[in-house]
């Protein structure tokens, strides 16, 4: 199912059919919930959040990634949590909520440092550069 989801979503995304890709992913998420497949839930939520973000549906992306983060934390998956937190930072920033974006990036960076994930920590630092001044009132 994961391979099918990735393939179908990649094809319609490459064609610029983001709405259709979003519908496919939402259907996969529904199946994952019905079957209670935690791995497929994680994959579908992350795909759906990315598509919502690309469509400018930032509040929806925040909600989807918020669910993904709760699952990452419940399953003690710090690598996935760090990635999800970085995604949340993007959506918060797009909405102009720089304080929340900075908090998400700070949490992601802490997890990446704990795991000694230098490459992702570098990306998180470069993405969050400049938010400190924007986050202050």
Helix content: over 70%
Helical segment tally?
A: 8
The dominant shape is globular
Our measurement of the CA-to-CA distance between the termini, rounded to an integer number of angstroms, reads: 46 Å
Radius of gyration, taken over Cα atoms and rounded to an integer in Å: 15 Å
Number of strands: 0
Question: What do the pLDDT scores average to?
Answer: 82
Biggest β-sheet, characterized? Answer: none
Percent of residues in β-strands: under 5%
Features:
globular, about 140 residues, mainly alpha, 8 helices
Topology at a glance:
Layout (H helix, E strand, L loop, with lengths): L1 H13 L3 H18 L2 H17 L3 H17 L3 H17 L3 H17 L3 H11 L2 H5 L2
Could you characterize the architecture of this molecule?
There is one protein chain. By secondary structure, the protein is mainly alpha-helical. Helix content is 84%, strand content 0%. It is built from eight helices and no strands. It has helices spanning 2-14, 18-35, 38-54, 58-74, 78-94, 98-114, 118-128, 131-135. The longest helix has 18 residues, at 18-35. 37% of the residues are buried. The mean pLDDT is 82.
Brief overview, please?
The chain has 137 residues and is mainly alpha-helical.
């Amino acid at each position: 199912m994961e391979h099918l989801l990735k393939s179908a979503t990649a094809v319609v995304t490459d064609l610029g059919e983001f709405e259709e890709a979003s519908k496919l992913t939402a259907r996969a998420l529904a199946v994952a919930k019905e079957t209670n497949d935690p791995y497929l839930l994680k994959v579908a939520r992350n795909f759906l959040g990315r598509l919502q973000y690309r469509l400018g549906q930032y509040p929806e992306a925040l909600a989807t990634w918020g669910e993904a983060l709760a699952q990452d934390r419940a399953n003690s998956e710090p690598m996935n949590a760090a990635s999800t937190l970085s995604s949340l930072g993007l959506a918060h920033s797009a909405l102009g909520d720089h304080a929340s974006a900075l908090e998400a990036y700070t949490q992601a960076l802490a997890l990446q440092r704990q795991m000694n994930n230098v490459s992702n920590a570098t990306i998180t630092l470069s993405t969050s550069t400049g938010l400190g001044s924007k986050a202050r009132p």
